[in-house]
Amino acid sequence: MNVTRAGLKKYRHAATYALAAALILVVTLYLALPVLSLFFRTTPDLFFSSLADPGVSSALWLSIFTTTVSLATVVIVGTPFAYFHSRTRYPGKMLVDTLIDLPLVMPPAVAGVALLVLYGRTGLIGRYLNVFGISLAFTTTAVIMAQIFVASPFYLRQAKSLFEQLDPAYEQTARTLGASPLRTFLLVTIPLTGSGLIAGAVMTFGRALGEFGATIMFAGNLPGVTQTMPLAVYEGMEGNFNAGLTISILLVIISFGIMIAVRLAARGRGFHA
Fold it and tell me: How do residues 236-245 score in pLDDT, each as one tens digit?
C-alpha cells in the first residue's frame, strides 16, 4: 500500500509538471509565433533596402521626434505633479486619480475624437485659437498631444506610487540639515525613486511610440507631418507591404528593448520582473 501511495504521489507530481509545462509552452508560442513570423517573412537585404524608403525613414524620424518631445513633456510636468498629488490631501483627489487612469481604459479612437472635439478648428477651445491663426488638429503638434494624452498615465501612476512609498523621513532629514524643498526634491527624492521613474518613463516612451488610434483621429495620416510609424504600417499594408513589414519589425525590436530596459530598472530597485 505504501509503495502504491508513493507511486501515485509521484505520478501526480509528474502530471502536474507536465500540465504546467504544456500550459507555459502553449501560451508562450501563442504570443511569440506571430512576432517571430514577421522576421521569417522578410530577408536582411529586403529589410535594409526598405529602410531607405523615404516613407519609412520619414515615419521613423517623425516618431522619434514626437515621442521624445512627448516623453520630455510628461517627465518635466508629470514628476512635480505626481509628487504634489501624492503628498497633498485635497477635495476631489479620488476624482483626479480616476481621470489620470481614464486614458488607460478609454479606447484610443475615443481619445482622438475627444481631442478633436476640444481642439479642432470648430472645437470648444480650438474655435478661439483659430481666431488667432492657431490650428492644432492635423499637425505635428496634434501627434504630440495625442501621445501625451494616452501615454502619460503610465508615468504618472508609477511616479505617484513611488512617491507614496518613499519614507518622508529621508526628506525631513535633509530639510533639518538646511536643504531647501527644491534641493531636497532634486538631491534626495529623485535619486531614491530614480530607477522606478526611469521604468515609468521607458513604458511611457513605448506607449507613445506605438500610439495609433488617437493620432489618426486627431492628427490624421499626413506623410512627413503626422504619419508616425504605426500609421505608416497601416498605410503600408494597403500599398507597400514591404515597407509596412519593415516598420513593424522595427517597432517589435524597439518594444522588446523597452521591456528589457524596464526589467533591468526593476531589478535595480531590488525587484524581479
Answer: 887 778 888 8
Q: Is 50 exceeded by the pLDDT of residue 273?
A: no
CA-only gyration radius of the chain, Å: 24
What is residue 268's predicted lDDT score, i.e. its pLDDT? 60
pLDDT > 90 fraction of the chain, expressed in percent and rounded = 54
pLDDT, tens digit (0-9, with 9 covering 90-100), for 163-193:
999 988 888 888 888 888 889 998 999 999 9
- C-alpha–C-alpha distance, residues 203 and 159, integer Å: 12
Q: Side chain identity at 150, as an amino acid letter?
A: V
Taking the C-alpha atoms of 92, 88, 103 and 226 in order, what is their torsion angle to the nearest 10 degrees?
120
Q: In the predicted model, what is the mean pLDDT of residues 131-145?
A: 94
**Contact by Cβ (8 Å): 67, 154:** no
Interior/surface letters 183-210, b for 16+ CB within 10 angstroms, e for the rest: ebbeebbeebbebbbbbbbbbbbbbbbb
Residue 176 to residue 113: CA distance in whole angstroms: 50
What is residue 85's predicted lDDT score, i.e. its pLDDT? 92
